[in-house]
Amino acid sequence: MPLALLALAIGAFGIGTTEFVIMGLLPEVAGDFQVSIPTAGFLVTGYALGVVLGAPLMTLLGTRVTRKRMLMLLMGLFVVGNVVSALAPFFGVMLAGRVIASLAHGAFFGIGSVVAADLVAPQKKAGAIAMMFTGLTVANVVGVPLGTFIGQTAGWRTTFLVVAALGVVGLLGVAKLVPEQPKAEGVRIRHELAAFRNVQVLLAMAMTVLGFGGVFAAITYITPMMTEVAGYSDSSVTWLLVLFGLGMVGGNLIGGKFADRRLMPLLYVSLGALAVVLGLFTVTAHNKVAAAVTIVLIGALGFATVPPLQKRVLDQAAGAPTLASAVNIGAFNLGNALSAWIGGLVIAAGLGYTAPNWVGAALAASALVLAVLSSVLERRETGKGRVVTGGSPEPAPVAAARH
């Protein structure tokens, strides 16, 4: 794998750390600004919404510059956002800093996916995408626990300064290691938007929302579930999240390896198994050992869908993939936000802390149905003599010969 992927992975590590570390530092931030925990929770919600809105916005703004330059600008924006957060004199400024940093998130992963895929041979594209996303998964194993520890011992502001420093390293890595790729000629905003007329692109994004949304329906409420149902202590939640992160790392690497060979079968297996495991979590959550094993499986099966879904979008929007790739990253965060909200509704309805697991199972099962539908439609198009590649069906050789 090219060294350029290391630079992309470092940037992904910093972005993943800043996204999730706030969850472990909410009490410290709330206390410092003298706001309630629910109010401090807007730092999580605001970031997620910033990713959803920023992914298409920043990508469209970057259509007139090279991808390398845009990646550097995004990492610069990420650094600025985290510095603003670290130095914020009051809560509103802190929230603004979080939103600024989030604007770089979706576009970085979206454009980075395109760059990573272009760096390798066609049969290794999903593996290259997975390598970049390894930075995000490792962030959950190393960056988030370490950032939480730094914040609890040296102050949460120090955590965000350290994350900003990671962003500087990522920016320098992109500048030094990522090769200049010529700007695609003839590709304009209308070409990027045209990808969304392809039903296969939309189906892949819907699978992203539902599939990984199923994961977050359960994981968002992992703390009360593990402490109130499984019987773990509050301090044990950190290492349980590390187990979840390890599962994500493994699932990401497996997904990257097999997506280049059997993409749709991989989605069938991972989404189907994810639905089953999430359903079983309502039972295994009552046992400490079984709950820990289930958490690893949820992380692995959930992230095994990420490289194939990202590659699916790139393949179906091959003519102008950048915007579609970035929007698909926003789809992950949209799924996270929606599933966490629905999970909260079922808990508020008095169904218990394990109820979000059923929500997650239903979402993952719905994603599986869409995956099957996508394959059926694709085979139907092929049967009509039209081969679907890159989102723009091409005439079959016989039909083309008639012209």
TrEMBL record:
Residues passing through the membrane, by range: 42-61, 73-93, 99-121, 128-150, 156-178, 199-224, 236-254, 266-283, 289-309, 330-352, 358-377
An example Gene Ontology molecular-function term: transmembrane transporter activity
SUPFAM superfamilies for this protein: MFS general substrate transporter
Keywords (A to Z) from UniProt: Cell membrane, Membrane, Transmembrane, Transmembrane helix
Membrane topology: Multi-pass membrane protein
InterPro entries xref list: MFS, MFS_dom, MFS_Efflux_Transporters, MFS_trans_sf
Region of interest (Disordered), ranges: 384-403
GO cellular component, one term: plasma membrane
Domain Major facilitator superfamily (MFS) profile intervals: 4-383
Compartments where found: Cell membrane
Main location (coarse class): membrane
Record's protein name: MFS transporter
Organism, scientific name: Streptomyces globisporus
